[in-house]
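Exam revision sheet. Question 4 asks you to relate a sequence to its structure. Input first:
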Amino acid sequence: MSFKFLVRRRLFASVFFVLCSAALLTLSYINHSLSFAKRSEPKSEVAKPSLHRSWRVNGPSDDWIPFPNPHCSGLHELSAPCIRDRQISKLQANYTNLVLAEEIIYRPFRIGIPGFVNEESKNHWLEGGYKLERMRISGDLRWATYPTWYGQNFVFENGRYAEYPKPDEWTDQACMGGAESVLPFFNTTAPSPYEPPPEFDTIVIATVPDSWSWQHFLDRATIVYNQAMLSIPHEDREKVVVVSGHQSLSKFVNEIYSRIGAAHVHDRERVTARRLVFSCRAPLIHPFSTQRLHDVLGVRTHPEQGSIPIEDRKVILMIPRKDDADQLNEGRRVLNQEAFDNATRALLERRGLGEEYVIFNRESYPDLQSLIDFMSMKVRAIIAPHGGGLYNARFAPAGTLVLEFMPSTRWEACFWEQTRMSEQNYFVYTAKAENELQDMTLEHIEQIIEMLDKNLGKEPEQPLVMWYDRAVE
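Answer key, structure tokens:
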């Protein structure tokens, strides 16, 4: 064998070795890039938006559906997609259980300011209204304008709830508290095949303050739940389990869980699931949240849904504090209730329209559907002191008159906002508070009666409109 042949063979072998090494390095780089992409992108099993992820329910809330945005570009650094990108970059791990992060953008809106029984009530309400930072009162005192709101949905695979956020506590770190963190749900360790399987398929964290109560189940837990549904495929919603605080003693709370199709667990130190949805970062006030609950529960709020016209609803419903729903606090009773009752009955008799004055008794309704039917088919007006009883207005149709007695030492916006977002006709009367419990005396019964006479059976003028800061094409 010649010397030249040996040199050529060794040269060929060296070149072949170099080419093979380069190929292996290239394959290794591609594999590394794919590995990084896999941990950076949503896992297809859990979080890729389903073609069947329907947000429409064929009801009024469809007009207010917010816009989920999974992309960080152009958003604030604390938006959900930017938190996702930043945390994945920081972790530099081969695995992370975060599979979807969406910024939920709620469109701006306007609601009409209240109707007032008298100037004293108007001045008292405006004094508090100008201090409410979440809205702005228009110069003509007709509207309150609410800006764009932002919620956040985070979806984790192999998720674990371990008493955070703590349930039933009024703190900033509570679910919907404003300072609740998503970081405790991140996990960079892939599940071991030897671990027991997750307890549930999908859980939604709804450990809001006083989650067991009628009031705060309605005005917080249902908001968190409905926002979470925006990030869950339609075909998986029947698998959802709501994780909450104490078990409610209200039969109506438990029935609402059943009506929305959600199982629920309570007072658990640890819950595991194939998919965990953290939607605690949700706006407290928005027409979508209010109207979506109406639609899901089958409340007939508008004629196209089969609501009863206001002229055919004859009940003027008084909800005194003694029958308040799940009453948490003493006080705010009307001390001259009997005088007001007699004056209202006299008004209805004088009007001669077949209207009936009814004192609300929760025990008269054996189940949620009977309450919904009564409120949506019979009630023309609801009158109540500030308190949980006014949450029953959630089941009354658009156009229903709602009169709230507000103690002179208190100011709250929640029932005005709730009723306006339900397109109801809200009025407020400032009543003299007589003690620390805010028991009240109605000093102007004749003015209240005059207001009722003028407005019973009348539809409100535009209680709710979408808002946009352009008026021309």
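Marking note for examiners. The chain is about 30% helix and 20% strand.
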